[in-house]
């Protein structure tokens, strides 16, 4: 069986641990590979490689670092279908969606090519007589990136291009469920000329994560995953004195006002609810409809769901399988729960006929109407193709519902009323807002991140926050001697 290895100091290595984890092809329901799981010695090898590579990488000129990243961008752009195929094989999402993920990641590489401009300091001349002050941004050192299964290429790319561009070295710990994308990326960075040890991939589970969080040489941690683990990582790593940005789970609401274009809203609900089988942190899972349009909107959504094709992502399907059998079973268990809680199941994905192997981890698109807001179907992050409809009487009731959620990752409003949209963007306690846009993932020049239990830490991913996260500032106050220097003065420095 093919073994997926670590990539440490420019080499693929099995490391010292004998623990292995089965990697599935979710569309066939079979184990196709195994990934090595790091032990403490492997963690130390990866961090040591990143530590040893740091000084030379930090001291390389901006121009030379940028040339390597530029070459990486060119190779990635030319070869991204290869990476998309790897993602589909291990994650299950359809090929077009996998390619979209890579393209959104590439956007951050392109953003990071502007880092020499973005990381410039400030300069004030003559703040006091003969005195100038300027600030510098410098890299932190070796940093850890810990990523989830649902975007095995894009989420690492939210972080490492900026970390590398600003002179840090990286240890990436990808999800053990789809670990090959990270290795492909590491090989491509090597091909682009990245020196050994600057970017390392450490395969593993909790042992690897705990090792990174505790390792004294790791200066910062960027984590993305479910809320309980995000909180754990934040608490552990900050207690160990590290800089941390930790992005957690979500339950995203789409609010539809009665004046909205209902065809546009129905299309958006389908795209955002069922794309990537609902395994997106920006998926819409709660459709909040202000009456009296709910019957009409539900009918339009149900009608659009009928032709959707669930199946093997390598074929021409709309939606692939879920990541594991256990996860599929967990997501499917919300359907009887909804019935027991008094909701109406309009379309039940358990009866799907997939275009794929009978052993695949299938669940078809599911639409549940009149979901009580006390039900776990509404309250939990389901992370699957289950769209709940909640009917409300007013805009105010809808916003109050969204603001009462523990999560605050993404949300959307569908309306033709600019005043209502503006009020929504001001009142809603959510980090990323779409106005007639269902999956409002900001472009790389802005920062990605939510609010409340969807993020722990102050700085979000990419955009200006990404540059701030991966650099520390120094302020320099300088005076070059001239004939006017004033002799001894023990008082606190003041401007004159
Ligand atoms: P997860 O929390 O299970 O795993 C994320 C990472 O943490 C993986 O690398 C995993 O190996 C590691 N991990 C798992 N259990 C751990 C433990 N007990 N201790 C230490 N580390 C552990 O998440 P997932 O299932 O891979 O991904 C789906 C989740 O990620 C969803 O909740 C989704 O909303 C969230 N997500 C959030 C964003 C965002 O930007 N906010 C983006 C993508 C995914």
From TrEMBL:
<protein>
    <recommendedName>
        <fullName>methylmalonate-semialdehyde dehydrogenase (CoA acylating)</fullName>
        <ecNumber>1.2.1.27</ecNumber>
    </recommendedName>
</protein>
<keyword id="KW-0520">NAD</keyword>
<dbReference type="Pfam" id="PF00171">
    <property type="entry name" value="Aldedh"/>
</dbReference>
<dbReference type="GO" id="GO:0004491">
    <property type="term" value="F:methylmalonate-semialdehyde dehydrogenase (acylating, NAD) activity"/>
</dbReference>
<keyword id="KW-0560">Oxidoreductase</keyword>
<dbReference type="GO" id="GO:0006210">
    <property type="term" value="P:thymine catabolic process"/>
</dbReference>
<dbReference type="GO" id="GO:0006574">
    <property type="term" value="P:L-valine catabolic process"/>
</dbReference>
<dbReference type="InterPro" id="IPR016160">
    <property type="entry name" value="Ald_DH_CS_CYS"/>
</dbReference>
<dbReference type="InterPro" id="IPR010061">
    <property type="entry name" value="MeMal-semiAld_DH"/>
</dbReference>
<dbReference type="InterPro" id="IPR016162">
    <property type="entry name" value="Ald_DH_N"/>
</dbReference>
<feature type="domain" description="Aldehyde dehydrogenase">
    <location>
        <begin position="16"/>
        <end position="476"/>
    </location>
</feature>
<dbReference type="InterPro" id="IPR015590">
    <property type="entry name" value="Aldehyde_DH_dom"/>
</dbReference>
<dbReference type="InterPro" id="IPR016161">
    <property type="entry name" value="Ald_DH/histidinol_DH"/>
</dbReference>
<dbReference type="InterPro" id="IPR016163">
    <property type="entry name" value="Ald_DH_C"/>
</dbReference>
């Amino acid at each position: 069986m093919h073994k997926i290895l670590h990539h440490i100091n420019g080499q693929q290595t099995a490391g010292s641990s004998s623990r292995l984890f089965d990697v599935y092809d979710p569309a066939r329901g079979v184990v196709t590979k195994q990934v090595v799981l790091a032990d403490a010695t492997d963690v130390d090898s990866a961090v040591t490689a990143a530590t040893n590579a740091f000084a030379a990488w930090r001291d390389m000129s901006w121009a030379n670092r940028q040339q390597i990243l530029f070459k990486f961008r060119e190779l990635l752009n030319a070869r991204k279908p290869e990476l998309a195929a790897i993602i589909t094989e291990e994650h299950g999402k359809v090929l077009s969606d996998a390619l979209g993920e890579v393209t959104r990641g590439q956007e951050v590489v392109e953003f990071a090519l502007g880092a020499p401009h973005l990381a410039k300091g400030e300069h004030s001349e003559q703040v006091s007589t003969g005195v100038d002050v300027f600030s510098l941004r410098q890299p932190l050192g070796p940093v850890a990136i810990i990523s989830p299964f649902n975007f095995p290429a894009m989420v690492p790319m939210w972080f490492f291009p900026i970390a590398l561009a600003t002179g840090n070295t990286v240890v990436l710990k990808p999800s053990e469920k789809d670990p090959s994308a990270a290795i492909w990326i590491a090989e491509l960075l090597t091909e682009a000329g990245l020196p050994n040890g600057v970017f390392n991939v450490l395969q593993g589970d909790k042992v690897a994560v705990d090792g990174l969080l505790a390792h004294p040489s790791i200066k910062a941690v960027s984590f993305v995953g479910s809320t309980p683990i995000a909180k754990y990582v934040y608490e552990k790593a900050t207690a160990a004195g590290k800089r941390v940005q930790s992005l957690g789970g979500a339950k995203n609401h789409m609010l539809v006002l009665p004046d909205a274009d209902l065809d546009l809203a129905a299309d958006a609900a389908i795209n955002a609810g069922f794309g990537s089988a609902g395994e997106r942190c920006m998926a819409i899972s709660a459709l909040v409809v202000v009456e009296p349009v709910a019957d009409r909107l539900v009918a339009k959504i149900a009608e659009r769901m009928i032709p959707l094709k669930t199946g093997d992502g390598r074929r021409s399907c709309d939606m692939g399988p879920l990541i594991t059998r256990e996860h599929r079973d967990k997501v499917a268990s919300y359907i009887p729960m909804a019935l027991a809680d008094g909701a109406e199941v309009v379309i039940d994905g358990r009866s799907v006929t997939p275009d794929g192997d009978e052993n695949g981890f299938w669940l078809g698109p599911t639409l549940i109407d009149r979901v009580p807001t006390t039900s776990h179907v509404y309250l939990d992050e389901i992370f699957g193709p289950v769209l709940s409809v909640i009917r409300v009487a007013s805009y105010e009731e809808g916003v109050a519902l969204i603001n009462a959620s523990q999560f605050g990752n993404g949300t959307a409003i569908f309306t033709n009323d600019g005043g209502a949209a503006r009020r929504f963007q001001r009142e809603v306690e959510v980090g990323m807002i779409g106005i007639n846009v269902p999956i409002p993932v900001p472009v790389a020049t802005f920062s990605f991140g939510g609010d409340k239990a969807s993020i722990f830490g102050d700085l979000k991913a990419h955009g200006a926050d990404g540059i701030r996260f991966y650099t520390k500032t120094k302020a320099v106050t300088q005076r070059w001697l001239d004939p006017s220097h004033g002799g001894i003065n023990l008082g606190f420095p003041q401007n004159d």
